[in-house]
Design a protein that fits this description.
Helix content is 31%, strand content 17%. It has 223 residues and is α/β, with parallel strands linked by helices. The model has no long low-confidence stretch (mean pLDDT 98).
């Protein structure tokens, strides 16, 4: 039996008060899955369970197309677990996919934070890409300190949010929030493919970093 990785996707489908739809960013799920899925079984959880909203719906991307056309993958994504369904002791890693929706329902989900903390305390890995690191904001270690405190990290940067024209729709700026929790920002130039590994915490900057994050996590798990 394969060991398991838990993917986390957002249940939030509205981009603030913009009237625009959002959700999990498709390639931030499919690209890491494409390198992790051969060796690990992947389960998916979302704050509300069921079918999550999707953004970044680019089927010209061959990896996206491969997964989107796979009925087994569609079945899994249409019936995501709720946090209460998850036994964290079953997983070697947890990965938070991005998409703007994550900014709204990841940070204050206490159950997801507890799941991630347990996986980490069991010797597992915590990974996140783009807006996925919103899930790191309130992960507490057994001594009460934030997981991110004193750790090098990357995420969708303030500069990228500004260039994207979405600052006014966000509840906060992710880079700033993680820095306020004691994280050490190690971002690259906007839209760079960039991943930061600090021990068993692995973070990527944006959608362009999702495949590299999957590869980095796979290498770390193999070690």
């Amino acid at each position: 039996m394969k060991e398991k990785i838990l993917f986390v996707v957002t249940s939030h489908g509205e981009l603030g008060d913009s009237g625009r739809k959002t959700g999990y960013f498709l390639s931030e799920v499919t690209h890491p899955w494409s390198v992790l899925g051969d060796k690990y079984d992947i389960d998916v959880v979302s704050p509300k369970g069921g079918r999550p909203p999707v953004d970044g719906f680019d089927l010209d991307d061959p990896i996206n197309r491969k997964f989107w056309d796979n009925p087994e993958w569609q079945d899994k994504m249409s019936s995501t677990m709720t946090p209460d369904d998850v036994n964290p002791d079953e997983y070697k890693a947890i990965f938070y996919a991005g998409g703007h929706g994550a900014m709204f329902d990841f940070p204050d989900n206490k159950k997801l934070a507890e799941i991630a903390a347990t996986i980490y305390n069991n010797g597992g890995f915590v990974a996140a890409v783009c807006h996925g690191p919103a899930g790191l904001i309130n992960i507490l270690l057994p001594d009460g300190t934030n997981l991110i405190k004193g750790r090098n990290f990357d995420c969708f940067t303030n500069a990228e949010e500004e260039a994207n024209g979405t600052v006014k729709y966000m509840p906060f700026l992710l880079q700033s929030a993680l820095q306020e929790k004691g994280g050490i920002f190690q971002g690259a130039a906007p839209w760079s493919d960039h991943v930061v590994a600090d021990g068993r915490l692995i973070t990527g900057q944006n959608p362009m970093s999702a495949l590299s994050l999957g590869k980095t996590l796979l290498q770390a798990l193999d070690r």
